[in-house]
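Today's session is about reading a structure prediction critically. Students often jump straight to the picture, but the first step is always the sequence itself: look for stretches that repeat, for charged clusters, for runs of hydrophobic residues. Only then move on to the predicted structure, which in these notes is written as discrete structure tokens rather than atom positions. Here is the chain we will use throughout the hour.
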Amino acid sequence: ATRDRIMQAVQELGYIPNDSAQTLRSRSTQEFGVVFPDIDDLGESEILKGIAAAAEAQDYSLQIALSTSTPKLEQKIIERFLRKQVEGLIILTCQPENTDFFRNTVGVSNVPTVFIDRMPEKIDANFLGFDTYRVCLQLTARLIDAGYRRIALVAGHRRFFSEMESIRGYTDAMDERHMPPGAVQIVETDLTKEAAFRQAMFHLADDPPQAVITTSNPLSLGVMEAFNLTAVDVPGRTCVITLGADCWNRSNYLPNVIHTAQAAYALGQHCVELLLKNRKS
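Below is the predicted structure for this chain, in token form.
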């Protein structure tokens, strides 16, 4: 009877429980911090959807922050999450080379952490990413076997693990097929469509190769814009392939571009599964 009266009062007053007070009592935030540079890339947005779905299924909430690829802002965000005592961190970092920062923050915090795609060295944390080495190795080899001789790779900078692995897969396929050094054309750029557009205008548009492999959707957007402006026929003159996310409508996203299917949504789910395993152990 007492409970019924309390619940009636709760409904009449529109009372909402104070999560902060509950956190103080239980010493548990039931919250994960998520740090991404941005979500312009279809793959990154699919990863985030997978994270959100898996967290919600386990009654965890998310604090999501975007660093806009600014190292100082990313550091500020991570430090703020650690002060809030989140129960786990999921980080797609824009500064994997900054090992001192990560060792002195995440490394000593005892907060379970998953790094996506880009892993700082010498830090005890989880890492999840796609096998971009094997993908680029097989794509390049298939193109060569199909008669393509001028194949370009447009990738991000080698300081990012997945981009370095893409470049390594591409060059290994060229070496295995005994392609001449002049056939190798690697265009490294910032991971934005604007940067890819500039590089494609400088290095690809005037004398387009037979095929272009890009390591992300934003890079393929930039390349396609350059080709559209310079009347390069895709796929008639040049075949464009991108390492894209597995998404039901990807055929309508960048028409005439061939997409690989990386299970980005599933990767996001695995991030949460790893954090929960860490919490239990």
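Discussion point for the tutorial: The two ends are 41 Å apart (CA to CA).
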